[in-house]
Amino acid sequence: MSRTDVLIGHHLPLYREVLSSTFRSMRPDLLICSVPEVELDQKVQELRPLLVICGMVTTVIADYSSAWIALYPEDRDEALVSVAGKRRTIPHASVLELLGVMEELESTASS
Amino acid sequence: MIRLMIVDDHTSFRESLVFMLNLVDDLIVVAQAGTLSMARDVIRTAPIDLALLDLDLAGERGLDLIHEVRVHHPNAVAVALTGNVGAKSRALAVRAGAVGVLHKSTSIQDIVTTIRRAVAGEPLMSPREAAELVLEGNRHEKSDVEGRQALRQLSGREQDVLRALATGLDNQGIAQRLFISQETVRSHIVRIYKKLGVDSRLQAVLFAVRHQFLSEDDLL
């Protein structure tokens, strides 16, 4: 894929670093970018990633991204997932479950 | 090889951190946990050299684990890893025996460096800084203990009134909710003020939040 697949902009830098590095190791075929939260809205509009992973969903993310994951809303161990407008919550979301959302997007795109 | 235990309630972050640390040649994560009870179980059994502990585990005090690490592993050290920027959590962690406190804005390389230095017995802060943090931790701990004691002195009905105050109800609303007169509500509030050492509704609610009697969910 030539476009950014996953854009990670969680507000905690350590979260961005370890999640993006782990994703790259587990899915080297994906183009994964990590940006500070303050730049996330701008990068979402520029890069139009397939999936945005953030700490808080802004209007720009909701408007420009068809799929996003909000991690740890209000510090709870869960992921709020939105794919094509359909939302669901994954409690205690694992790395594999987060990557599963990406696989879901890929599967939808190829069908 | 440095044996690590990682405790953090954010599952995907913890898994990613474990994955990254296991890629480092001289580190191995031998145990991980996402809750206080799970952490207590693994502390008793896992052979560790260093515990990297989140201080806030879904509302539970990860701080208590620092002492337990020291009890079960006298040669191991604990380093706190927190997303909280407040000086209080840093002070309480050092007072509890953590040799260092890292914020989640740090980098993985800084964590690796800190782990190596801590296990080698190198100080992660100056004696003066450590002493100041311990003293500050003592003050916070004393305040927390006194606060919890004051809240325990509230009668059941006074606790009901305090919870109702947090929802923003006025005396009439509280009276209707609790099926008591407004005069009785006023009496309860006066006693709450006296027991908590406050002089307004807002102060009473903030006191209760600060000492974890009320959570954000209890507030209007």
Structure report:
The complex is a heterodimer of chains A (111) and B (220). Chain A has helices at 13-26, 37-47, 59-64, 95-110, and strands at 6-8, 32-34, 51-54, 67-71, 78-83, 86-91. With 111 residues, chain A is of the alpha/beta class. In chain A, strands 2-1-3-4-5-6 form a 6-stranded mixed sheet, with helices on both faces. Chain B is α/β, with parallel strands linked by helices and 220 residues long. Chain B folds into 2 domains: 2-140, 3-Layer(aba) Sandwich (Rossmann fold); 153-218, Arc Repressor Mutant, subunit A (Orthogonal Bundle). Chain B has helices at residues 11-22, 36-45, 63-72, 87-96, 108-119, 127-152, 156-166, 171-178, 182-196, 201-210, and strands at residues 2-7, 27-33, 50-54, 56-57, 60-61, 77-82, 100-103. In chain B, helix 7 crosses helix 10. Chain A binds chain B through residues 12-15, 17-19, 21-22, 25, 71-72, 74-77, 79, 92-95, 97-98, and chain B through 9-13, 15-17, 19-20, 23, 34, 56, 58, 83, 104-108, 111, 216.
